[in-house]
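Input chain follows. Return structure tokens only.
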Amino acid sequence: MAGDSTYRAGCEHLVVQVDDDSAARRIVSDLLTDAGCSVRSFSSGKEVIEYLHGHGKADCILLDVRLPDVDGLSLFQLLRNDYPGIPVILMTGFGNVDQAVSAMTQGAYYYFTKPVDLLLLRRTVCELLEKIRLQRQIFEMTKARANFGLIGQSNAIRETIRRVKLVADLQTTVLITGETGTGKELVARAIHEGGRRCGQPFIAFNCAAIPDTLLESELFGYEKGAFTGAGHSKPGKFELADRGTLFLDEIGDLPSALQAKLLRVLEDREVERLGGVHMKKVDVRFLAATHHSPSDLLTGDRFRQDLYYRLASFEIRLPPLRERVDDLPLLVFHFLGELNRTCRRTVQVVNPAVMDFFTNYPWPGNIRELRNMLETAVICCPGREMQLEHLPGPARSAAVCNRADLPALSQLEREAVTRALEQAKGNRTVAARLLGISRNQVRYRIKKYGLAEDSEESGSGVHTS
């Protein structure tokens, strides 16, 4: 393994470089060490793979496309698959536009041709490491705000967290209310894990997901022969939650006949299986949740008032996402961290237009809808920046409809061409491929919008961040 490695005590960033040219390795190592980085250098693909498999540690990889033992682009693909969270900067002395475009579409952070502009290299690496540092700060901030897994800093979620802490270590029955997708089960788990029963079973049961004919047997259990098909005895959810917590979700959909039996269990702490002849004591803490408001729940004969007041000894209302828009950045980056790992992506930046849409969107499905929307966007985003075009189709349509300051089409086109030219460092061929149009069409739009002189500029690098 190449031994030209430089460490700096206390340095938080490690750059790994792979280049078979020892002189080039030394120059880059000195350059980045002077910039405050620790550097590990390798001369072959095999060496860096062995290092990463053994340590898996790097904040950035500088990779020469031409190596003695492996094609650099093939190695790049391997690194993307096995270490999707590590950004890669490609360098080569044999660069061409096709290779640059290929690298960009596959997720390279930057592409340099040799001889490398050392000042630009240093600036690019330092900017990248600064982004990583900020992302770590966001991650730490998210953890600091993640009380019981409840993420946010708005007044609404702070009040929710306060009430969870008040009741977590008690045995009080709690009713959790809130719209669909606001995280009622998450709050129930937070109450369970924050109390003295945290090491005991947490049983979640959705009253709306089971047919009425099966609800009683699922809750109370049954003895062998209790009904046709009961070939063996089975404990119900009350018994399974003994010494722990039973969370009854969508309690408002419980049939009236079972409401009376549930009230009896709450009062006596005893259950009897179907077909059984003996009552069994259970030590269970009961948590319940509903998306109905208390007034709707108690309208008419839908829900027993005595059961409601028994369940609602203490009530926690979860605010809808539209009432806690200040929490959106924390929630977005929290979910991005999860989704980048599960979807094997490296989305690190959310375009301001996307965040504006998130802020103004009403979120009828609340946090669940946000996570699902982000999952689609992460899957559809091949690079590091999430754009409106990566959102699901209905969300993209809503984004257009909700923009009160919708710019003219010509303005959008001008901004798109400008952005592509900036990313391509003035190279119109690369910009054309980024935009999906011909080079002549790019030239026409440059002249149309007065963006630049109609000249052949190649640029010293292709930036894809």
